[in-house]
Design goal:
The complex is a heterodimer of chains A (502) and B (352). Chain A is α+β, with helices and mostly antiparallel strands and 502 residues long. Chain A is built from 16 helices and twelve strands. With 352 residues, chain B is mostly helical. Chain B is built from 15 helices and no strands. Classes of the chains: A alpha+beta (502), B mainly alpha (352).
């Protein structure tokens, strides 16, 4: 019923009939309308068995209502029930059918009383969900080991536990016309720019879709350039990382049934930085970041450069390497370009298969795919060992990217560059790379430049490519509100200025 | 004229302008490199670096002149054609050199087809690119180009000879002076950021520092080239592409070859795109367009194709003859608003 508001009728029987029809209680066995007598009149409770907790309904709804004395004459039934009878905090009164159904199918229970307009909706959610556990895809060596779950409420609680300040605002928004999905927009008031928050809200409210099944789907509906290879939002399953996004002035979107949250706006640096960078000492953090950057460059460029040098520009290789390449390639029954493409495809297959099979079999598959298959194809002279080394190295490099979306973008970019190299060698790779960079430089996330504060340069936290010491990072990122540009106003190591007592 | 950048806060406008100056500096370096290979090696010989130094006052004067002109408001529509022609000439020279490099790197390449493919790809890329993309790319390119350039320069040091600098004055002071005048054309478009819509007013240092550094890099490149090989041996004997890749050819280092080829290609691609995009912006100003026309850049790319694809001697001679006139055109564009204002003021005084 997109865009149409239906009010519950005043007559009790009509109201009940409408609720029964619209909730399809006659067809769905788990949708229950439980009639009873309370406060000397007819009443009914509408809930979904399994979503609402039965024990809570009995203790906090049915028992108090049945045992309560009749209201005094002239008292409002709604006020009496809500304030004097029902010992529940999460009570909402609504007369809108859509809202009642949306809440009931989210796990709440709706109380309909004869003589009371609309319905009282009580928060008695009690469905089973996964407990807070370790993040599956963002494990770290140092740092906390808690990850988000599929419960929106738990995820918000996890964030609140880390950011114990009233400035953490959480606004609930619904998206989806046919089946509304609950979202929670979180931001730090005073730190996030107002235009960021209002733009996120505007975009979410502007999504015209029947149902949003995942956070990834929502990301595609919200991003600036949906045709770009690069992801324009940062997703994380770690509360500590989400908190770091919030303190940098980004808005975080949590969604029902999504074990991760989405941070917007997000640029390249948000995808390049790993969750435990800050937890490590700056020397180690910088070393790991440079290693990561080299890995990403290797992943993007190595196969294309190898192909270009070997096939088109042998003058750019040392003689010993060239001899080795030519010798090993001479036994292979296909061109280097074809073998490189096929091995890249095989690598992609192993990768995709390993991520789909159950955990225990994943390791077996990697061994079968990586070792046995690799050795067999080399022994059978199907591919040159150098090609396998190049693809394996570039594959390893792609996994150094902390974001899964960035890994995939790198691999697609790698494939485009290999095709360009196969056509014209360096003369294909360089313009292709130039055009990819040109596209990337024009990219924005919620209107903010994707590569800021590097290009364009912005006065902001110097935590960019290298991980500078914490006490250098007094400024916030470029996304923070101009009213709160700094994380620290004085010297972070103020103690070092005072004399040490012995 | 500023409608393409409707609600830019001051810090963003300043960042855009700084990036534009960097793009200008890289374009200047690319034009200096092209000028070296196209003209200076042959006409000035060993002291090509002196000619590059001699051209330094030109960008300084043009930047100061353009700054005054920009202070008087947007460039008058009719005058927009002059910088458009200068920028297009820059792009043409860079594309000509780019095609020569393509032919040198892959001698059996079908050059017209490759040039057409480059034109199409760059045209499509520029047509769809945001007006901020190129200036931002220039900032990234500084990080990507300078370390390889220094590495190649360092590799080259071990393979040169000081005797290659002799005769110290090459074909004589006159040729050096003529070379300086020719190179001033390469520096003509340096002042473009002042005249482009959307630029912020920055202190002159912000503009002049990157430009002078670019010219210094150009002079260093000329000096390294002279160190590597007797430049008189280049005149008339080697192709333009070979000269552009001199460091790659003369240094036996394996990574140096790859880095030099990649660096030269990137630099020339950036220069082509910068020239075409700026020319399109000025043409947009001439036609009174409020937005930066990406499609015009794509169309202008087509104009560069014939000269690049054909690579004939008459075309090269024409480019050599036409290149120095860029200074005159740009000086006219930057000076006309100032002169017009002075003329207006003196007219009012006379009337009073």
């Amino acid at each position: 019923m997109p865009g149409k508001t239906v009010l519950l009728p005043e007559d009790y029987q009509d109201r009940l009939r409408l609720l029964r029809e619209e909730s399809h209680a006659m067809e769905s066995e788990d949708v229950v309308i439980h009639p009873f007598r309370a406060l000397g009149r007819e009443a009914a409770l509408l809930y979904v068995d399994g979503l609402a907790r039965g024990e809570d309904m009995e203790r906090f709804l049915l028992l108090p209502l049945m045992a309560a004395p009749l209201p005094a004459e002239g008292d409002s039934l709604l006020d009496y029930a809500a304030r004097s009878v029902l010992p529940l905090c999460g009570l909402t009164h609504t007369e809108e059918l859509g809202q009642v159904l949306s809440r009931v199918f989210s796990g709440d229970a709706a109380l309909v009383l004869c003589g009371m307009p609309g319905a009282l909706v009580a928060d008695v959610k009690g469905f089973a969900h996964r407990a807070v556990g370790r993040p599956v895809n963002e494990s770290v060596v140092t740092g906390p080991h808690e990850g988000f779950t599929e419960s929106l409420r738990d995820n918000v609680v996890l964030l609140r536990r880390l950011l114990r300040t009233p400035d953490l605002i959480s606004e609930e928004i619904q998206v989806g016309d046919l089946v509304p999905t609950r979202l929670c927009l979180l931001y730090l008031k005073g730190v996030a720019r107002l235009e960021t928050v209002s733009e996120v809200k505007r975009r979410i409210r502007g999504c015209r879709v029947d149902y949003v099944s995942s956070l990834g789907m929502l990301e595609q509906l919200l991003e600036d350039r949906p045709f770009s290879l690069l992801p324009q939002a940062a997703s994380t399953e770690r509360p500590d990382r989400a908190v770091s996004f919030l303190t940098e002035g980004q808005a975080v979107i949590a969604m029902e049934n999504a074990p991760m949250v989405l941070a917007m706006p997000a640029g390249f640096l948000h995808l390049y930085h790993a969750p435990d960078d800050t937890a490590l000492r700056w020397q180690y953090g910088t070393f790991l970041r440079l290693l990561r950057l080299s890995g990403m460059a290797l992943s993007l460029l190595l196969p294309a450069v190898f192909l270009s040098l070997t096939v088109f520009h042998p003058e750019g290789m040392s003689l010993s390497l060239l001899t080795s390449v030519v010798e090993s390639q001479s036994r292979v029954p296909m061109t280097l370009f074809a073998s490189l493409l096929i091995v890249l495809l095989i690598f992609g297959l192993i990768n995709e298969a390993a991520s789909r099979v159950p955990g225990a079999m994943g390791a077996t598959l990697s061994i079968v795919g990586g070792l046995i298959l690799g050795q067999a194809v080399v022994e059978a002279d199907l591919f040159s060992p150098l090609v396998l080394i190049v693809v394996a190295l570039s594959g390893l490099g792609s996994y150094t990217a902390p974001s899964h979306s960035l890994t995939l973008a790198l691999r697609i970019g790698q494939l485009l560059l290999v095709i360009a190299a196969g056509l014209l060698g360096y003369l294909g790779v360089i313009p292709a790379l130039f055009l990819l960079m040109l596209r990337g430089m024009g990219l924005t996330s919620l209107g903010f430049p994707y590569f800021a504060p590097i290009a364009p340069r912005r006065a902001a936290n110097p935590d960019r490519i290298a991980r500078l010491p914490i006490w250098f990072q007094r400024g916030r990122g470029p996304l923070a509100s101009p009213q709160s540009p700094r994380r620290a106003w004085g010297d972070m190591r103020a103690w070092s200025k005072t004399k040490e007592e012995k | 004229m500023t409608a393409a950048f409707p609600a830019l806060p001051d810090d963003r406008r300043a960042a855009l302008t700084r990036d534009r100056w960097l793009l200008s500096a890289l374009n200047l370096y690319a034009q200096a490199a092209v000028g070296l290979s196209l003209y200076l090696y042959g006409s000035v010989s060993t002291p090509g670096y002196l000619s590059v130094f001699l051209s330094v006052p030109v960008p300084v004067l043009l930047v100061l002149l353009a700054e005054r002109a920009a202070g008087m408001g947007p460039l008058p529509r009719a005058l927009c054609l002059l910088p458009a022609a200068v920028c297009l000439m820059d792009a043409q020279l860079a594309f000509f050199a780019l095609c020569a490099v393509l032919a040198d790197v892959m001698p059996d390449l079908n050059l017209p087809l490759a040039a057409a493919a480059y034109t199409a790809a760059l045209g499509a890329g520029l047509g769809g690119a945001s007006p901020y993309a190129l200036p931002r790319l220039a900032r990234l390119m500084v990080f990507l180009l300078i370390p390889p350039a220094l590495f190649c320069g360092a590799c080259a040091l071990g393979h040169g000879n000081a005797s290659h600098f002799f005769p110290l004055l090459g074909y004589g002071p006159e040729s050096i002076l003529r070379g300086g005048v020719w190179m001033s054309g390469a520096a003509a478009s340096a002042c473009c950021p002042h005249l482009l819509p959307g630029s912020a007013k920055l202190p002159p240092r912000a503009a002049l520092t990157p430009l002078l550094l670019a010219l210094l890099m150009g002079a260093l490149t000329a000096a390294v080239s002279a160190w590597l090989m007797p430049v008189y041996a280049l005149s008339g004997q080697r192709t333009l592409g070979w000269r552009m890749l001199l460091v790659a050819h003369m240094t036996p280092s394996v990574p140096c070859w790859s880095l030099a080829v990649a660096g030269v290609l990137m630099l020339l691609l950036l220069s082509v795109c910068a020239g075409v995009r700026r020319a399109a912006a000025f043409l947009g100003g001439f036609f009174g367009k409020k937005s930066d026309p990406g499609w015009a850049a794509a169309a202008l790319m087509l104009l560069l194709l014939p000269a690049g694809a054909l690579q004939t001697a008459p075309i090269r001679d024409f480019l050599i003859q036409a290149a120095p006139w860029r200074t005159v055109l740009m000086a006219a564009a930057a000076a006309a608003p100032c002169l017009g204002r002075r003329h207006g003021q003196s007219g009012r005084k006379d009337a009073a």
